[in-house]
Design a protein that fits this description.
Ald_DH_N; 15 helices; globular; alpha/beta; 7-stranded mixed sheet; Aldehyde Dehydrogenase, Chain A, domain 1; Aldehyde Dehydrogenase, Chain A, domain 2; Ald_DH_CS_GLU
């Protein structure tokens, strides 16, 4: 294990047993250690502990909760380097990206520490003279989450921070590939003074069991999930019997559009950042590139040249831009989509080779058509298919031709087009002349089959609050 200054962050490691879960470095294949695997009974007991802890937590003031959360934020940032190294070791992304994610994840703790103080109710003008009408906001109760390996810290804090600020307790099952980051974040919350059993991590390889348990448990009032659309559908169905509140951040198929009036160099820079961050393993990364025919050759050449400069390797090594894919299955899918595109007439401009281990060269392919599988599916790998378009109307039709609606991006210097296209794109988020748009102060979420609900901003707090109407009569 790479040297970690705050070894309490790794107190979750246990001895190897028949049921423990190995945590593997995707860059080297080395086993980093083992964490406990909880069975159904153990998780049910954890839910009960969370239920009891929430009752007392809900009675604290928003300021008391904020004080603890501010200390948690400070500890996250004080341990940024250790957290980043843990993340790179178990997830693979370059260390610079891991540092950025720690800061990004911590920003939600800082934001919601203050936003929790603004869970305002209302005094409503009464229609009858002898009545007074008001509303108050109260925590939903126990909230549960299932989070992915792609952003193992940020996907927890973006959900846990508003839940805790609202007065909920929070129980989360992280991905089996990245449990160490989850335990480390929870340990720092404990060191910050968060009472016991308000932020509980449960690790298990029985993903189906956990999903069913969270959805069917009468003691869990809210489910938050980040992952594939297929799994999201299952969780929503399972939650229907108990009419459980859900928020879902699901699959994406983000278009990246460059119009003929765009700053091409700026667009190339944004394309690199959006597409190849985390080796293309993000739900909001550019999945398909639509470039106006007047600048198609110029953009594709500059884009390919920039991609050729990206350094592939172990995320702990200096100047690495592209780390490994998370596992062999991800590598196989990336190669399958590339081979299918080439067989259908696409040409490789740069990259295109699977490398030893779980590495794959960052790749640009041109002469791609809108109907190819690599355009229609979410790639979740370092391949950028570049498509030619000629007019705005057909472009909008192609960009919206998907069941997904999470993020989208376009580049233009025409102010009229900026507003026209931003409104026409059927996505929950639109980046204009910008390839990275996520921030704690803005609502994150999609439309269509990319999800339901929002995270971040003041909307993120609303996901964990119930509005109660109080009518005072005989006044």
């Amino acid at each position: 294990m790479e040297k970690i200054s705050n070894m309490s962050l790794l107190s979750c490691l246990c001895e190897k047993t028949a049921s423990s879960i190995p945590v593997t470095n995707p860059a080297t294949g080395d086993v980093l250690g083992f964490v406990a695997s909880y069975d159904k009974t153990s998780i049910e007991n954890k839910i009960q502990l969370a239920k009891e802890a929430q009752k007392a937590w809900a009675k604290t003031t928003a300021k008391q909760r904020a004080d603890i959360m501010h200390r948690w934020y400070q500890l996250l940032m004080a341990n940024q380097e250790d957290l980043a190294r843990i993340m790179t070791l178990e997830q693979g992304k370059p260390l610079a990206e891991s540092r950025g994610e720690v800061a990004y994840g911590a920003s939600f703790v800082q934001w919601f520490a203050e936003e929790g103080k603004r869970a305002y109710g209302e005094t409503i003008p009464t229609p009858l003279a002898d009545r007074r009408i008001m509303t108050i906001c109260q925590p939903v109760g126990v909230a549960a989450a299932i989070t992915p390996w792609s952003f193992p810290i940020a996907m927890i804090t973006r959900k846990a921070a508003p839940a805790l600020a609202a007065g909920c307790s929070f129980i989360v099952k992280p991905a089996v590939q990245t449990p160490l980051s989850a335990y480390a974040v929870a340990e720092l919350a404990r060191q910050a003074g968060l009472p016991e059993n308000l932020l509980i991590i449960v690790t298990t390889e029985e993903a189906v069991m956990v999903g069913e348990l969270f959805c069917h448990s009468p003691d869990i009032q809210k489910i938050s999930f980040t992952g594939s659309t297929n799994v999201g559908r299952i969780l929503m169905r399972q939650s229907a019997d108990s009419i459980k509140r859900v928020s879902m951040e699901l699959g994406g198929n983000a278009p990246f559009i460059v119009f003929d009036d765009a700053d091409v160099d700026l667009a190339v820079k944004g394309a690199i950042t959006s597409k190849f961050r985390n080796a293309g393993q993000t739900c909001v990364c550019a999945n398909r590139f639509y470039i106006h025919e007047a600048i198609y050759d110029e953009f594709t050449e500059k884009f390919a040249n920039a991609v050729a400069e990206l350094k592939i390797g172990n995320g702990l090594d200096t100047n690495v831009s592209i780390g490994p894919l998370i596992d062999e299955k991800a590598k196989e899918k990336t190669l399958r989509l590339l081979n299918e595109a080439v067989s259908e007439g696409a040409e490789i401009s740069v990259g295109g080779k699977p490398l030893d281990g779980q590495f794959f060269e960052p790749t640009v392919i041109k002469n791609v058509s809108h109907t190819m599988s690599i355009v229609q599916e979410e790639i979740f790998g370092p391949i950028a298919p570049v498509i030619r378009f000629s007019d705005e109307a057909s472009l909008i039709e192609m960009a919206n031709d998907t069941i997904y609606g999470l993020a989208s991006y376009f580049y233009s210097r025409d102010i009229n087009r900026v507003f026209r296209v931003a409104e026409a794109l059927d996505y929950g988020m639109v980046g204009v002349n910008e390839g990275i748009i996520s921030t704690e102060v803005a609502p994150f979420g999609g439309v269509k089959q990319s999800g339901i609900g929002r995270e971040g901003a003041h909307q993120g707090l609303d996901e964990y609050l119930n509005t109660k109407y109080i009518c005072l009569g005989s006044m």
